[in-house]
Amino acid sequence: MSSQYTFTGQFTFSIDSKNRINIPAPLRKQFLTKDKKTFVVTRGIDQCAWIYPINEWNFIQNELKQLSSLSKTNRIFLRNHLRHANILKFDSQGRFVLPQSLIDYSAIKKDVTIIGVLNKIEIWNPNLLRKIDQSDEIDDQSYEELSERVNI
Amino acid sequence: MSSQYTFTGQFTFSIDSKNRINIPAPLRKQFLTKDKKTFVVTRGIDQCAWIYPINEWNFIQNELKQLSSLSKTNRIFLRNHLRHANILKFDSQGRFVLPQSLIDYSAIKKDVTIIGVLNKIEIWNPNLLRKIDQSDEIDDQSYEELSERVNI
DNA sequence: AAATTAACCCACTATTAACCACTTATCTTA
DNA sequence: TAAGATAAGTGGTTAATAGTGGGTTAATTT
Fold it and tell me: Model-level pTM?
C-alpha cells in the first residue's frame, strides 16, 4: 500500500526562543484529518530532520520489528534509527518543539526551511539546503537509471 | 503477534547514590497502561542493560523454549541470557534500582543514557555508547542485505 | 541484635506543556 | 476595490509535570 500523504511545497519559517517550529498550514491540514496531531521527528539521512505522520511511522516500525537483535548489524541499525525518533504532537497553534539533539544535528539557528516530500516533511537550515542544492546535482547517468523505474 | 511496544528516543539521566535510575516519562507511560510497572532487566548482548516489559519478556521466554539444550551453543546462550534476568518494579516516582552486577557489566558511573529500541529499553554508559556509535559503522554490504528484507 | 537493603514518603527545582494574546496575512463579500 | 472577517504566524505567561535528592520505616540478611 502506498502512502496517503502528498506533502509538497517549500516554506521558510523561524524557530522561536523555546525551540518551537510552526508547521505550515497547507501541510498541517493533512495531519488533522488523519492523525490527530501526532507525528514523529527523527534524523534525516542528509543533514536535516524528517517528520513522519504517525501512521506512516507505524508502517516503518512494523518493518523494523522483523529484525532480530541477535544480529549485530540489526542491533546497530535499530539503535541508531530509533534513538533519534521522537513521538510528538503539535500544540493548539500548530507548533512543536524540535528536540535539541536534532537542532544540533541539522545545524539550525534562527530560520528553517520546511519542505514537503510526499510522505514526509524535511526541516533544513536554509543555508545548508542551498549548499546541497548546488553541489548535489543529479548526473545524466542517474537520471537514465531513474527513468527506468519512475514514469513522470 | 508482534510487540505492542514502541519505545523510541534517547535520554540522559543520572543514577543516584542508591543506584536508582529514573525511567523517562515518555517510555514509562507505556508501562503503566499495559504492565502495571513490572519489567525485566538483564544483560544486553552489547555492553549495556536491557529492559523488557514483563509480557514482552514472557514472549521471549517462549521463543527461548524452542531451543534444545542438546546443542552446546544453545546451552551457553540460554544460560547467559536467563541467569542475569531480574524481575523488578519501579517505585511510585517511576524509578528502579539497577542491580550491582549490571552496573558493573555496563560500566555505569554517574550518568546513564537511556534509549528506546521498540520492544526494549537500553541503559548505557554515555561514553561507551558514543564509542560504539563511532566504531560500529554498518558497511555498505550489510546495508545492501538489509535492504532486501526491510523496506523503509 | 546489628547491619544492610528495600519500600515508601515528602520535598525542591527546572523544564515542559497548556493557555492566552497580539500582529500580519489572506480571503470574502459588499 | 475597500472593509470586514477569518486564518496564520509569532511571542510570552502560567500551571503542571518530570527529574532529582534525601529521610524514615519495614523487611531481610548475617
Answer: 0.88
